[in-house]
Amino acid sequence: MKASDLEVTPLAALAFAVFAASTSAILVRWSTAPSSVAAFYRVLFTTAIVAPIALMRYREEFARLSGRDLGFAVVAGVALAVHFAAWFESLNHTSVAASVTLVQTQPIFVALGAALVLGEYVNREAVIGIAIAIVGAAAMSFGGAGEAPVSDATMYGNALALLGAITVAGYVLAGRSIRQRVSLFPYVTVVYTACALTLFVLVGAQGHDYVAYPTREWLLFLGMAVGPGVFGHTVVNWVLKHLESVVVSVTWLGEPVGATLLALFLLAEVPDAVTVVGGCVVLAGIYVTTIERERRQS
To answer: Of 10, 63, 204, 244, whose Cβ has the fewest other Cβ atoms within 10 Å?
Structure first.
């Protein structure tokens, strides 16, 4: 059965993936494990879910992967590992709203990379949509979601989140390029494997224990894999074959809005008026960008 038979459009799938990804910050906050450990097991468990499907149904395609595509998929996996490590750690130093918002400044880097590398140029209307969304994201960051005033610790957390934005932009651009030629499951299996191996090395380098964690932590790791991993990132990688990288990256800005709402109900982090207004502006920017794409496609 085809996706069209189920009436699943790429934009609908992307909206679902953004919602699934919004749960990540909450799960990370609930976890008491080191950030790199949580990131490692999230990716490892996600790999364990998708790899059997890839090996059973796409074995011949694995054998046909070009060295270039394989190499760029590995680079994408390393970039994703740096993204996770930096972003997860940032959540220990700044608010959920600020961290998730700053990491989602990635549309700026995606738009630049898409124009320079992929030849996907952004028109005036899309630029307006990106600008609106970024302004809203900045407003949410300044809101601070009820956290303490800016300090050296929060600045460090914000800097880590920005590093996460740059590296995830590279991951999105690689996915947009390679997914035109490689099926979803072979691609994500290579990417997630490279990502997990990178995080495995990082955990060891930081001197963290690999296994001495209570049952609650293992359940949180599994939740990170199933929700943000399978239903978040993996669905986004499916969407990247059908939608321009800029549309995907701007729509991903909905994640801080969802995460802030979840933080309100689950972490008692009450957003202030600036954060609320910023979230509305983010949604307006997403609307402008996606509507512009629909207009061009009609």
So the answer is: 63
